[in-house]
Amino acid sequence: MKDIITTLNNRRTIREFTNEKIDDNIIKEILNALMHSATSNGLQQASIIRVTAEDKKKAIAKVCNQEYVARVPELFIFIADHYRNFRLIRDNGRNYDTVSNVDIFIQGLTDATILASNMVSMVESMDLGAFFIGSILNDTQRIIEILNLPKLTYPVVGVGFGKPNQKPQMKPKIPSELRVFENSYVYYEDYKKTFKKYDEEMQTYYDLRDANRRVDSFSDQVYNKTQKPISKRDEFLNVARKNSYKL
After folding, report:
1. Which terminal CB of the chain, N or C, has fewer other CB atoms within 10 Å?
2. What confidence tens digit (pLDDT) does each residue in 99-135 have?
């Protein structure tokens, strides 16, 4: 098992896997360790759904518009879960009106994200490969239906992992001096000039999802990817309200 610094310094997204099954003892070890993750106010407002049914995997992959999601050996969906605490309050005969407010909702999103990040770090330290699945947000109402989620829950992010069957190039990331500041935010006079070196570095990266072609500069990606919003993602808050959150 690799140490955490080595793991994070060498992490890359893996999307293709062998057919080798992950031992159930490893899955149990990972899930047990995840239960010790940090959580807002100690309220543990997130849950995890392991998706093993092939029809559900395919349905989720369709929402994501990423066919490899249906083929990943292990698929987990992390959800904000306030239903559990709502039931604990209600079934003890207490007032539960405040279990669905904005602050509580955001705490659940945070808890779910921490769980997902910890899972990826753990599996990568075991020389397994993983990818995050933010595209479940393409249609959160459909994900709620697929997973039969109750009110006061919300899908946040997915994680897929298994034994790697590809060796992608390490993706360049913005250097720390442009993202880590001390005491106050740092503004730059000319962002085009400041990011010129990183733009050039990014253009040396090959994305295996796109026929191994070099990607656009980061500046171009920022522009292009923000010009094509996914319409159903605009329904994020409406779906949450429909699922009984008071936002």
Report:
1. N
2. 889 999 999 999 999 999 999 999 999 999 999 999 9
